[in-house]
């Protein structure tokens, strides 16, 4: 039996626990998510390097998943353009059941291997792309078929699961296994397994963006001013990096169409 499907003896009497006891049991289990990611760091590093190489070559990071895994992938892909200024097609996510399944569970779609292959083909995967299949159980036919199709078309493939020796791992050039074990509620992989997946996706996209020049020091220099908070952050970065007041920072950003990198580079170049 898959470890993610096994019963957790520590929570066998969860329904009889007090609120504080429930919270403590869940929090104790959450620590295993962090430990599992720590153990998988060498595997994650290989995927990060492949992701950075894909972006540097003009390719894409393509996530494919179902259920919680797909929703986490959609979130990570959606947050890359405003954070790092990349084109929306640079990091994309394919979700079993389509975008409607992001907001409402669509049962059975993860079992449709034919749809997985078809949906992947629609993205025209190629040698410059990294395709990462995500499934907590590791056995979703939709994800496995999508990975197989991507591989057949020359893409580098990776997998992220919480069980070893699974179908998606066999389709991956670069497998990641975060062995989070039995869940607090048996089989509810939106919990420990989902926590680990979220952390790994954060790592992959963040490190790939850093390695391809989207971050200077620890600052988002490709940030886009899509709301007041981000606009204020850009002003703050210019003030801190260039040692100027707010009015001067705004004037400099205005002069460079609110593009942070050229704003910083123009003054740095002038001073040198």
Jot down its keywords.
single chain, 272 residues, alpha/beta, Rossmann fold, 2 domains, five-stranded parallel beta sheet, two-stranded antiparallel sheet, 11 helices, 7 strands
How many structural domains can be distinguished in the coordinates? Answer: 2
CATH topology of the largest domain: Rossmann fold
- Report helical residue fraction: 40-55%
* Beta content: 5-15%
Mean pLDDT: 94
Number of helices: 11
Structural class: alpha/beta
CATH architecture of the largest domain: 3-Layer(aba) Sandwich
Q: Termini separation (Å)?
A: 64 Å
The CATH homology group name of the largest domain: Glucose-6-phosphate isomerase like protein, domain 1
> What sort of overall outline do the alpha carbons produce when their principal axes are compared?
globular
Low-confidence stretches: none
Q: Radius of gyration in whole Å, from Cα?
A: 21 Å
**Arrangement of strands in the largest sheet:** 2-1-3-4-5
The SSE string, one letter per element, is HHEHEHHEHEHEHEEHHH
Number of strands: 7
Note down, in words, how this protein is organized.
There is one protein chain. The chain is an alpha/beta fold and 272 residues long. It has 2 domains: 3-211, Rossmann fold (3-Layer(aba) Sandwich), CATH 3.40.50.10490; 223-271, no CATH class. The chain has 11 helices and 7 strands. The chain has helices at 19-39, 41-56, 67-84, 100-103, 113-122, 141-152, 167-170, 192-211, 228-242, 246-255, 260-271, and strands spanning 61-65, 91-95, 130-134, 156-161, 174-177, 215-216, 219-220. The strands form 2 sheets. The protein has a 5-stranded parallel beta sheet, sandwiched between helices. The protein has a two-stranded antiparallel ribbon with strand order 6-7. The radius of gyration is 21 Å and the shape is globular. The termini are far apart. 44% of the residues are buried.
